[in-house]
Design goal:
alpha+beta, Immunoglobulin-like, four-stranded antiparallel beta sheet, 2 helices, 17% helix, 40% strand
Length: 173
């Protein structure tokens, strides 16, 4: 009986060549083609927020008749709506419109958060950034406004966010 050697030299050389070729291909694609996040003279403005709009209508006090018709465990004296207002955001850069969106609330009952993420490339340099937001259908115009002069460096990222706890609209640089 003739037994074959488990280490066949031709198979080992072929396997080494295959692994070497695979390593060269991986090495090439890990560095080429070069990826550019932004053009060299551009900056980035990102709008990112998750916010509950105001209720569509105000709470109202239930009458004695309405309370009597309800089950004892459901007799809350105030009736408050679940539905929330859509959130409208308008961004201007140097007095020119940059972005406008109306984000509806999430959820089947339209009572969830309105969430948005947008990114806009702008030329680097000195700019006046104006952001206006309305989160209530009961309020005319915009109930949150922020305007600021910014000097944007090339490849700089400015994030526009919203937090009622922090006073409304704020810019993170």
């Amino acid at each position: 009986m003739v037994s074959k050697s488990p280490l066949n030299p031709v198979a080992l050389v072929g396997q080494a060549l295959f692994y070497g070729l695979f390593a060269v291909i991986i090495g090439y694609f890990s560095t080429s083609p070069a990826y550019r996040h932004l053009a060299p003279d551009m900056a980035l403005i990102k709008l990112s927020y998750s916010h509950h709009g105001q209720p569509v209508t105000e709470c109202r006090k239930r009458t004695a008749e309405e309370l009597a018709k309800l089950a004892p465990n459901m007799r809350a004296p105030m009736a408050c709506p679940r539905e929330r207002s859509p959130v409208t955001v308008e961004i201007e850069l140097d007095g020119k419109p940059l972005h406008k969106s109306v984000t509806p609330p999430s959820g089947l009952s339209r009572d969830g958060t309105a969430t948005t993420y947008q990114r806009v490339e702008v030329p680097a340099g000195e700019h006046t950034l104006s952001v206006k937001m309305n989160d209530s259908v009961r309020h005319e115009g915009y109930n949150y406004v922020r305007e600021e002069k910014l000097v944007l460096k090339p490849a700089q990222i400015v994030v526009i966010d919203f937090s009622a706890d922090k006073g409304g609209i704020f810019f993170a640089q």
